């Protein structure tokens, strides 16, 4: 069976570019809910002005996300990836729709009760994020690097699109009665439709693409059980013919061995997101002061981060800009921490132009380094090992994001009326 797959040339299979487009859309869907929440942050600051929405909601989101990915990473070899991803996308769709229902039910009024319900919905975002992002990156790690690069780029596209939509809706409704609320609700409705599209694409389109069937069949031949349901959805029913012999299964590295072999990759991903989430979104909403852009300032900063994050995720497509040297990646990741004093002094003494530049650098380096690591790390492993490693990489991304969110509260030290 292994020889049969090795004799095929996957680049000649039909559906590679279609798969890249679908992966990008699925990437958008895996993060559009969270980015929607960030992008309507100005509205939630109006409704819940005393509760630090950008910081608290981010901090609520992360424990659910980390707890879920820890369980999935430990049991990844026994989990039905198809059900896992579909449940995640369906939960995304339902949760973001519930944000609209909550606002309609409360008529846009704040208070501790609605805020607790909002936090509960955000917790479901965390569960769905870990389910989808870990499942998709683990699944795409079985395939060619272009597909995982497209998915990860889709995460940034989600941010860029949500920022663009939010700026458009804010501009369209700014001068109307209750305009901020109307813009936020239309924006959330658009996000709900995007999530529903992802459910349909993953359920009915993605598993039937030839290149996807090829790589999943190859993974099954190497002993991966997580792809069986997806192969059945693609019309490949005889799963017993796709299993490898017991010897090849026994050679699979366990999670501890995979971590030891990739310790620099997982630590680098952890540090990338510690820095990014310690600044975004709380610092940008609460610590950058008042400038000429007024209520647009935080939205513009978030938009600049998202757009440059997107650019960074496509930079590795240029070969000489694709950093593959492991020591070089570590140096680049550590160098990013120079942005901490840069942000501090710019917020204190600089003008909005310098802040926009720093946010752009933060986004560019975040996207670039993330793609370099996620595309390089799975190379040379068998199908089951790639899936396991993909889940572990996402675990450290989410853990870094959680630690970054916690450290983000330190920016409030010394600030009047911070708490």
Automatic annotation (TrEMBL):
What is the name attached to this protein's record?
Equilibrative nucleoside transporter
The entry's localization annotation reads: Membrane
Spans through the membrane = 17-36, 56-74, 86-106, 112-130, 151-173, 185-206, 265-284, 296-316, 328-347, 353-377, 389-412
- Membrane disposition: Multi-pass membrane protein
PANTHER family found in the cross-reference section: EQUILIBRATIVE NUCLEOSIDE TRANSPORTER, EQUILIBRATIVE NUCLEOTIDE TRANSPORTER 3-RELATED
Keywords annotated in UniProt:
Membrane, Transmembrane, Transmembrane helix, Transport
Cited InterPro entries: Eqnu_transpt (IPR002259)
Q: Which domain of life is it from?
A: Eukaryota
Which Pfam families is this protein grouped with?
Nucleoside_tran
Main location (coarse class): membrane
Similarity section: Belongs to the SLC29A/ENT transporter (TC 2.A.57) family.
Q: Which GO terms describe its molecular function?
A: nucleoside transmembrane transporter activity
User: Where is it found, in Gene Ontology cellular component terms?
Assistant: plasma membrane
């Amino acid at each position: 069976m292994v020889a049969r797959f090795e004799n095929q040339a996957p680049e000649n299979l039909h559906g590679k570019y279609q798969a890249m487009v679908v992966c990008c859309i699925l990437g958008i869907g895996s993060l559009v809910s969270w980015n929607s929440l960030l992008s309507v942050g100005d509205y939630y600051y109006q409704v819940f002005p005393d509760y630090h929405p950008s910081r608290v909601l981010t901090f609520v989101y992360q424990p659910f996300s980390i707890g879920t990915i820890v369980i999935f990473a430990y049991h990844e070899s026994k989990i039905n990836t198809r059900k896992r991803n579909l449940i995640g996308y369906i939960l995304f769709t339902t949760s973001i729709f519930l944000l609209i229902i909550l606002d309609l039910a409360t008529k846009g009024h704040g208070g501790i009760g609605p805020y607790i319900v909002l936090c509960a919905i955000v917790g479901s975002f965390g569960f769905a994020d870990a389910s989808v992002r870990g499942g998709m990156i683990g699944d795409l790690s079985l395939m060619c690097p272009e597909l995982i690069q497209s998915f990860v780029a889709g995460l940034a596209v989600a941010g860029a699109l949500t920022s663009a939509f939010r700026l458009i809706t804010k501009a369209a409704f700014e001068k109307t009665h209750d305009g901020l609320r109307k813009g936020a609700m239309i924006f959330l409705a658009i996000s709900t439709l995007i999530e529903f599209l992802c459910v349909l694409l993953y359920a009915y389109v993605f598993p039937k693409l030839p290149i996807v069937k090829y790589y999943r069949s190859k993974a099954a031949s190497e002993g991966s059980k997580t792809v069986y349901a997806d192969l059945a959805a693609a019309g490949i029913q005889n799963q017993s013919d796709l299993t490898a012999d017991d010897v090849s299964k026994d050679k699979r590295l366990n999670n501890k061995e995979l971590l030891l072999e990739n310790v620099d990759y997982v630590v680098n991903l952890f540090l990338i997101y510690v820095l990014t989430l310690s600044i975004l979104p709380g610092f940008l909403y609460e610590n950058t002061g008042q400038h000429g852009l007024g209520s647009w300032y935080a939205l513009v900063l978030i938009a600049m981060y998202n757009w440059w994050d997107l650019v960074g995720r496509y930079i590795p497509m240029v070969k000489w800009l694709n950093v593959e040297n492991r020591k070089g990646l570590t140096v680049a990741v550590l160098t990013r921490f120079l942005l901490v004093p840069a942000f501090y002094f710019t917020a204190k003494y600089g003008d909005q132009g310098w802040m926009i530049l720093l946010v752009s650098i933060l986004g560019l380096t975040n996207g670039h380094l993330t793609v370099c690591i996620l595309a390089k790390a799975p190379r040379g492993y068998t199908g089951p090992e790639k899936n396991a490693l993909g889940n572990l990489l996402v675990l450290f991304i989410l853990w870094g994001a959680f630690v970054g969110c916690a450290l983000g509260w330190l920016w409030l030290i010394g600030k009047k009326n911070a708490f």
